[in-house]
Amino acid sequence: MPKETKLSSPIMRARMRSIAESVAIPPPPEIDRSSARACIDIARYKETLQRTEGFCIDESVGFLPIIAGIGHMDPDDEDAISGAKAAVEALNARTGQNLELRRIVRVNAQAVAGELLYITLQASDDCFYEAKVYITNPKQPTDPDVIEVYFCRPAVHYQE
Fold it and tell me: Which residue ranges traverse the bilayer (predicted)?
């Protein structure tokens, strides 16, 4: 993985703020993290993430006070779209197919030194795929994002 980018410039801080805003993280709740309900919800969140490798977050868990975890991201976000297209290109290169991105079903994201995306997508063969994609922060505002596709595979955790 690339080295962590230092957020010394105002432009980089603005870029990170933009990334953080694109990930659907609700405001901090007024909840006691030590309450029995919060402990149960956090345990369910962690179990779901482990079981689904980050691709599914149980909607029934409710509102959790998790700051550095994996959260939902808008499928229409430009990083989500770029990551999904890169995943389909990587799949095509690996399999020799000529698939196109049909739609993005779901995106979960984790803010790291960039964004780690867990993308569930549908390709032009009407099959569903899961991709884990890392998008780095550019070193300069004019540099393009660097996209690294860790894998793109037939969906394991998605059911229609």
Answer: none
